[in-house]
């Protein structure tokens, strides 16, 4: 079967699909990933075909204010929709659609008759169990949580409205709004598989049929991969260090964050590794090492703790390694995942990015490293995650669809 996975966003929004795609390829499927050109090496490195999408939101940055942000997001989505139509020329047998690409992919699936499945990295369906994860909202009560969830989807539909109109015109489909198409998908119980662990976010009891939480899809890394020699030497030279990194977040804040991180590490008496990321963290010293991208699966089990922005992938990777965390959420769904780690006892309460100080970070690091309760909670979470097979559940769903078609 020819399968096209379509994903858009930052690195964390894309790399889980390299691991999922590699598992699908291992099962005998021909798999391509459509995403931004910047991720082509990651996709091809996993042995998957690459399709280029105008799917990198960094080219639409530098805005301030909600209204301008909405306009910029709508422009990005419109460009993404036109590019999505282009990559369908090869005619895959099945579309796997991420949170961002699904509201466009539904229309392409309609025009081409191609079956589709949602493969989401965040819970987006309204529920009483928690408020919308992208808003960072506090608990509102069950009825208000559901109401806020529905409102968040309406706002998302507004962002997609222009793109949907242009895409349907290009595909020669009759007019239909983004919200009307979403309602249609919900009424038919369109299947969405969520690639995160039930230990972090159990399936809400009030979700409709077709919505499932299956476990993480882990980024692909070659079994022959090794950590760089300088990093191996640093790990071997003393007690387990702490990793501090903000992934694709905090661009332009590198100098301040680097200084703050080193001060916090030394105040807590810990060795540290700074992961450069988009912020460009960097520091020198016998007790500090700066690194670029390395596989979390190889590094995290050898750490004392991880300080991170609470992205879905990094949060899961730290928990999978049985390592406690200090989370510093920056935006979007990050406060949700940081809060979930804290509820599990595997992390301190999240430190909002704007409230981060060296003193506050040092205090949190001192607690997660010295108080073994955090590590024990992380290890329990890791054991639970070992029982899940996210990619296997996707394969099972694909086989069921093939039998029913």
Describe how the helices and strands are arranged.
Layout: E1 2-6, H1 16-26, E2 30-36, H2 40-45, E3 49-53, H3 66-87, E4 94-97, H4 102-112, E5 116-120, H5 142-170, H6 178-187, E6 192-194, E7 211-213, H7 229-236, E8 242-244, H8 254-268, E9 272-275, E10 288-291, H9 296-299, E11 305-308, H10 312-320, E12 325-327, H11 334-344, H12 358-370, H13 372-386, H14 390-404
Parallel strand pairs: 1-2, 1-4, 2-3, 4-5, 5-6, 6-7, 8-9, 8-11, 9-10, 11-12
Count of discrete structural domains:
2
CATH class of the largest domain: Alpha Beta
Radius of gyration: 21 Å
Question: Under CATH, the topology of the largest domain is which?
Answer: Rossmann fold
How many individual helices?
14
The mean pLDDT is 90
CATH superfamily of the largest domain: Glycogen Phosphorylase B
Shape: globular
CATH architecture of the largest domain: 3-Layer(aba) Sandwich
H-E order? EHEHEHEHEHHEEHEHEEHEHEHHHH
- Spans where pLDDT lies below 50 across 5 or more residues: 59-65
| Main beta sheet strand tally, sense and closure | 7 strands, parallel
Description:
Helices cover 44% and strands 12% of the residues. The protein has 405 residues and is α/β, with parallel strands linked by helices. The protein has 2 domains: 2-216 and 388-404, Glycogen Phosphorylase B (Rossmann fold); 229-386, Glycogen Phosphorylase B (Rossmann fold). A 7-stranded parallel β-sheet has the order 3-2-1-4-5-6-7, with helices on both faces. A 5-stranded parallel β-sheet has the order 10-9-8-11-12, with helices on both faces. The longest helix has 29 residues, at 142-170. The two termini are 13 Å apart. 47% of the residues are buried.
